Amino acid sequence: MQNPWVKKLWLKDGVGKTLHAKLLNTITLDITEGRLKPGSMLPSSRSLASQLGINRKTVQQVYEELESQGWLITRPRAGTFVSETLPEQGLSADDAQLINSSERTLSSSKLLEGLYQHVVAPPCPISSNNDGVPDTRLIPYELLARTYRRVCIDLNRSSKLGYVDSKGSVELRSSVAKMLSDDRYMNCHYDQVCIVRGSQMGIYLASRILDPAKGVIVVEELCYLPARAAFESNGFKVVSCQLDEQGLNIEHLSDILSRHSVAAVYLTPHHQYPTTVTLPMERRLALLKLSKQYKFAVLEDDYDHEFHYESNPIPPLASLPNSENVVHIGSMSKVFAPGMRLGYIAAGVEFIERAAQEILLIDRQGNAITELVLAHLMETGEVKRHIRKTRKEYEARRDFAADEFIRVFGSKVSFKKPTGGMAIWVDISKLVQGRRLLDLPSKDSTLSSVYTNEQQVPTHLRFGFGALSLKEITQSIEQIASALQ
What is the pTM of this model? Predict the structure, then answer.
């Protein structure tokens, strides 16, 4: 006879730091204690997700993991059931320890766990999907398809799909070096360039190469959290440096240097993430002078250099005097799409060689076809033409978003129109008035409290306009207004 009652689960007292772990442990415990009996049917993933108020994908992943372990079984068109034959139970403590892999693994940080849950099963405390990403609808798909076809034909004729240098293809490294030299004032040779799978991989590699024994890593007090997580995962203590209306506070950095040994300073000087402020030339030169004096590396994350609207951008740190210690990290993800997974590191030859050694252990080499496609697009001028075209579109969206914030909120919010990038940093302190907001209904906005452990009450939000049409910008801002007002 069909059971008229729906199985209920209680997660609040579950063991584990994440929802995934809590649910997995709760179901396992209910089975071992007999509450969920062999052969009994579990709720569908959709039903259980609704019951618990969590993402369905989390439930599906837990069900799949428990099925692989032998606790559950799925019958097509019937449902998910507790297995009639359960995994070995009643082992001694010594035997149980032998098969417990968690005893042999390093635990991750809370920050990394939160970032991972955001990727695999939103929602979570970091809930924004769009904090300044490009619009994939603007990708020149036909151009990419033609270029991929041409490259594949050439590769077939030349048989060049074997193993190559782990620094990346010479063609793309040469194209990147030429771009950095011509467009960004850097004196760069292809031996000083390493191709990576995006700027995050570049940041992680830098933190692998640097030595935690040499000191802490300094980051901006509001910063790109995946970078901070990379530093922590490689054993670094992370120290925050204050920001002001001009970006990184050099006086506070000098104070940190007087109290700590510093291995590196990580920053986003072109458009500070998340506040969008451009670090002025005076501070850039002062930072580089300190880097030579105290012998620390400067990790320059130049994540959206291509999109500057008001005037010519200030030259990167890596192009200025005293820049010997700068590691310049960039990405082509904002130019085309994150899915292309191509970025680069530009630094001294010794640093690039160390990066190649680390890549050899985890990647061997990148995607040769995609690297050659991008190299061809750069050499034929197609990349530059695409940047010019999309820059005009993103500038129009920036101006429209700024006008819409004024129309919807009036003087209740304030902001400086960013000189570039794909996001606006908006002061919402008058509307928040001390309230502890955890989230906003718009997926295109992120509260300032997300970017730091210090701020409990948000004062600003970062609104990503790049991926939105004009109509979508209006809808998103009006959603924000309904929540704040």
Answer: 0.77
